[in-house]
Amino acid sequence: MKMNRGEGLPDAFRSADPECHHQMVFARRAAGSDIRMLLLGESGTGKTRLARGIHEWSPRAAGPFVEVNCAAIPDELLESELFGHVRGAFSGAVNDREGRFESAHGGTLFLDEIGELPLRLQAKLLRAVQDGQFERVGENTTRQVDVRILSASNQDLQARVDAGQFRADLFYRLAVATVELPPLRTRPRDLAATLDRFVEEHALQLAPALRRKLEAHPWPGNFRELENVFACLQLHAVNGRVEDFPLPEGRPPGTVSPPAEAATPATAFPEVPPTDAAPQVSPRESEEARRLRQALAAHNGNRSRAARSLGIDRTTLWRKLHRYNLA
Fold first, then answer.
1. Cβ(287)–Cβ(276) under 8 Å?
2. More confident: 107 or 228
3. Residue 108: what are its φ and ψ, rounded to 5°?
């Protein structure tokens, strides 16, 4: 639904913290244009929410908003998902199918986790981004669409360009305007405002010690982790008051904790062997690979807990470990 500017800003553009507020002011200005935008930030910082806000504040608000999570779709299916296919193009293609580019015609296509896009697809995406032209898988007919491209990543895409893992020409086409969302741990005013809204909407009281505990937590999963805590917090209320809540152990990405003295319980999945020291990383190693190593070391090789501390799921962690030969 198109946003009425007289009704005020969507919540996606609001921030009380100076650094984030500056980014939101720029995002709001860029939203009213038709330029391509790249949204950067850790997992859970609100990139998808902001992308929807940009669409709703844009001249294309009456058109479709189509989201593709490039990390959630197997590589062999991603081309068909983006561009569609014709009957018989591959085993199982029993009907013609339009892709997300066609579905987004006249509106906005949001490519989340764009850094996960395989190199072999990046050239075809470049053409579609640049000219709006592509072919469905298995056909020679060129199709034309009119879409605005928004993309997002929790990776350092410039580092991936430098490493030859992401095309420079595609990067510059996507990053006409860039918005960086700061992590929640650097946004104390936004955290306080979010807590205030939560207790007001649910008629709860938080004990002062619990409030301080929530405000001091590093929130490695950012707003996604906060939402999970909110979902459980109400269950701990007695007569509308919550005295305490067992927050998961968490540290900001890139930090390392001392190894636990007790052995980590075995899980149903193979784990990386525990380590007794901080991980050794090469100066040339990417920042993302460094964070993966450190998260695994901080949790004694337990991938489930490492994934939670990074604000990602186990499948995404597994893909990243294999990309950097850390599995």
1. no
2. 107
3. -125, 135
User: In whole angstroms, what is the distance from residue 101 CA to residue 129 CA?
Assistant: 10
Q: Which range among 19-23, 55-59, 209-213, 262-266 shows the weakest confidence by mean pLDDT?
A: 262-266
Contacts for 209-214 with beta carbons within 8 Å, 24 or more apart? 209/243, 209/244, 210/242, 210/243, 210/244, 210/245, 213/244, 213/245, 213/247, 214/245, 214/247
CB 110 within 8 A of CB 129: no
* Cα–Cα dist 17/302, whole Å: 34
Contact 239, 268 (CB under 8 A): no
Residues 303, 293: Cα–Cα separation, whole Å: 11
Distances (CA, A) of 248 to 3, 176, 217, 218, 229: 38, 38, 9, 10, 9
Which pLDDT value is given to residue 5? 39
Enter the tokens of residue 160: 């991936």
Q: Where are the alpha helices (DSSP H) in the chain?
A: 18-31, 47-56, 75-83, 100-103, 119-131, 157-162, 168-174, 188-201, 208-216, 222-233, 287-298, 303-310, 314-323
Q: For the segment 55-109, what is each residue's pLDDT rounded down to a tens digit?
A: 999 999 999 999 999 988 888 889 999 999 888 878 777 788 899 999 999 999 9
Q: What is the pLDDT of residues 119-146, one digit of tens each?
A: 989 999 999 999 999 999 988 999 999 9
Instruction: Concatenate the DSSP letters of all residues of 250-303 into one string.
Output: ---TT--PPPPSSPPPP-SS--PPP-SSPPP--TTS-HHHHHHHHHHHHTTT-H
